Amino acid sequence: MAMDTPDFSSPANFINRELSFLEFNQRVLDLAQDPTVPLLERLKFLSISSANLDEFFEIRVATLYERRESGTAGMSLDGRTVAEQIDAIHERARRLVAEQYRVLNDELTPALVKAGIDLEYRPTMSPEEEIALERNFQLNIEPVLSPLALDPARPFPRIQNKSLNFIVRLEGTDAFGRDTNLAIVQVPRSLPRVIRLPGTETSDRLRLTYISAIIQRYAGHLFEGMTVKGCWQFRVTRNSDLFVDEEEVDDLRRAIEGELADRRYGDAVRLETSDDCPPELSMFLLSQFHLAPSDHYLLAGPVNLNRLAAVYDIADRPDLKYPVFTPGLPARFADADVFSAIRENDLLVHHPFQSFAPVMDFLRSAARDPQVLAIKQTLYRSGSDSAVVDALVEAALNGKDVTVIIELMARFDEAANLELARRLQEAGAHVVYGVVGFKTHAKMILVVRREDGALRRYCHIGTGNYHAKTARFYTDYGLFTAADAIGQDMHELFLQLTSLTRTPRLRKLLQSPFSLHDSLLAAISREAEEARHGRPAKIIAKMNSLIEPRIIEALYAASCAGVEIDLIVRGICALRPGVQGISDNIRVRSVVGRFLEHSRVYYFHNKGRPKVWCSSADWMERNFFRRVEVAVPIERAKLRDRIIGDLESWLADNTDAWLLRPEGHYERLQPGDESPFSSQGALLSRYSES
User: What pLDDT, in 10s, does the model give residues 66-120?
Assistant: First the structure.
């Protein structure tokens, strides 16, 4: 009698994506508590966990609130209503925030003091220091402040997203003889968030305080003739997702510029106040932002822990930071010009362990080489001060035919990309804003060069952005190749993106929204078929997020068939591993360490002839169906084996790895009786020059 096929689509088989993200942020916070991590790096991880939570509320929670208001409820994969998700988010986020402040107050601040760094929330000053601090306030801070008294002529002001503010309780009459009770003081973003205290220039200790602490201390200077009865920090988080109906606008660039102007004042989704803020003032603030009490977060310390990153920058303490390293350089790039190096054979570079310099050398050589006729490139994120764009501008000015597909809807990089697009256009480059309705997320460079009377194509395809700065701490692969088939595929893809023409079937590359999803489903199915016949079958996949339900269900089916599946998922994972009869053969781990794991790699055993793909795509619906993504096969055996070795390294990590349990929680691995092994540390040792 045949056994019933399990219902892989049951909500019980999925983990909620929002709660999964909060679990990821917990892992970041765990590093802030790890005594083996250098102290200032722990402080930075705390800051990162705070910034992550900000963006989560700005985008994900804001989206849920929009759905609630519009009535487009629907159920999550795990069977929760919108209201149930919001309640669960608040419950988990409050625990996370409470832990952030416990770590700051009980662990990091005392450890900093022991290390000679005093980060003082309410600094104790000698009379001489007090005079100097007050003088600094009067000269450098007060002139920048614009306190706003609240009265019928001055209603509650528009408060920018994530700006730091004070609500001030006053007693007495203003300059016109009227009673004034409340005022708002916004801390300008132009002021440093953390400053050195006076009198410490020659001290062996570094004494720091928050700019907010100084403003709070001398708030009375802002309200002459009145008495400041209290001064409390608050911050509001707003919906920061841009909405542009791309199919309904005539000028996408202009529409985005208009939306950016309003982003700072989107609907409020969260209010944060210091925990000593009087309840009546908290309720007053909630009413002004149209928020419920459940949206209010009380903080046991300074509002906005993102500011802690400034301490890292101020403190010149190499002993409290990760050791500096010099990224390695593939020998062939050091010994030959970039085109001959690529022509000789495919090359693979692994950032940040290996330098981003080959990418820049590739672009700069293309810009200056008289034999190069054209450069075509996609840009998603490259930074406002982009060396990549500098090279493309140089190429255009040198008469090269430069075409850039620049994604204007790259979240939080929209303004930077608009400016980069302007620079490129002014230099004479062809700038295309992607495809309406589909973000261009693929990472591709195509260089066309005349050699011996014919044209030859040189390609770079990566898993990460063309961003020289983030390449120092994001882990990503980049493949250089002059292979004809890949060059032809990239030619077809760029034609598609610029002219919107239908492409013929690609020979080597997989592409979203067309072939990638189906190809992965087919590869998973082939492994399942091998396992059913008792033959070896294995899948290893590394990515940032795993959410797409059809892929998850295919992995469940493969597990039931006997396929051994290891998933390395840094962030959100909706798949529930280790469930009897569903995912017995699936293991999920997350590696979170010094560097941000960002590479996407897919391995299939394929009857002993391994197939390995590097890609820009996570396994999410947006990546498969609403973005332009590319996956490139790694066909040179030496490079393929190298990536497989890297995958095995991530799977062997017992210091920076967490295992996902069936109930949705993560358990950090410990070396135990084994030797400690860090995959990132091993890659640093293997490839860096330090």
Answer: 999 887 768 999 999 999 999 999 999 999 999 999 999 999 999 999 999 999 9
pLDDT at position 247 over 50: no
The residue among 420, 416, 366, 437 whose CA lies nearest residue 396 is 366
3-state secondary structure of 338: helix
pTM as predicted: 0.93
The answer on 80 and 104 residing in a single domain is yes
How many domains would you assign to the chain?
Answer: 3
Residues 214 and 281 in one domain: yes
Can 441 be counted among the known catalytic residues? yes
Measured between its terminal Cα atoms, the distance across the chain in Å is: 63
Residue 594: band (very low, low, confident or very high) from pLDDT cuts 50, 70, 90: very high
pLDDT above 70: residue 488: yes
In this structure, are 17 and 66 located in the same domain?
yes
The pair of structure tokens assigned to 272 is: 């944060």
1 in a domain, yes or no?
A: no
Arithmetic mean of pLDDT over the chain = 92
DSSP H/E element including 681: helix 679-687
The last residue of a domain, from among 450, 484, 508: 508
**635, 680: one domain:** yes
Residue 400 CA to residue 412 CA, distance in Å, equals 31
Region 176-194: what's the mean pLDDT?
A: 85
Query: Last residue of a domain, which of 320, 353, 386?
Result: 320
Task: Please give the DSSP secondary-structure letter assigned to residue 561.
Answer: H
223 and 80, same domain (yes or no):
yes
Same domain, 617 and 570: yes
Q: At 152, which CATH number?
A: 3.30.1840.10
CB 544 within 8 A of CB 600: yes
Give 522-525 contacts, CB < 8 A, sequence gap 24+: 523/602, 523/604, 523/606, 523/611, 524/551, 524/554, 524/555, 524/557, 524/558, 524/563, 524/604, 525/554, 525/558
Amino acid at 252: L
Is 163 domain-assigned? yes
Domain of 250, in residue numbers = 13-320
The answer as to whether 326 is a domain residue is: no
Catalytic residue among 296, 350, 351, 441: 441
As given in the structure block, the two tokens for residue 207 are: 């004494």
DSSP 374-438: EEEEEES---SS-HHHHHHHHHHHTT-EEEEEE-TT-TT-HHHHHHHHHHHHHHT-EEE--BTTB
Q: Are 498 and 564 contained in the same domain?
A: no
pLDDT over 90 (residue 567) = yes
- Residue 6 within a domain: no
Q: Residue 618: how many CB atoms within 10 A of its CB?
A: 23
Asked whether residue 236 falls in the same domain as residue 310, the answer is yes
CA distance linking residue 549 with residue 620, whole number of Å: 8
The closest alpha carbon to 565, from 529, 524, 606, belongs to: 524
Which region holds residue 44: left if phi is over 0, alpha if psi is between -120 and 50, else beta? Answer: alpha
CATH number of the domain to which 611 belongs = 3.30.870.10
| 3-state secondary structure at position 656 | coil
Please tell me the predicted confidence (pLDDT) of residue 175: 66
The pLDDT tens digits of the residues spanning 443-485 come to 999 999 999 999 999 999 999 999 999 999 999 999 999 999 9
pLDDT score for 176 = 64
What pLDDT score was predicted for residue 262?
53
Could you give the angle at which helices 82-102 and 39-55 cross, rounded to 10 degrees? 160
The first and second tokens of residue 662, run together, are 């069936």
- Whether a cis peptide bond, with omega within 30° of 0, leads into 671 is no
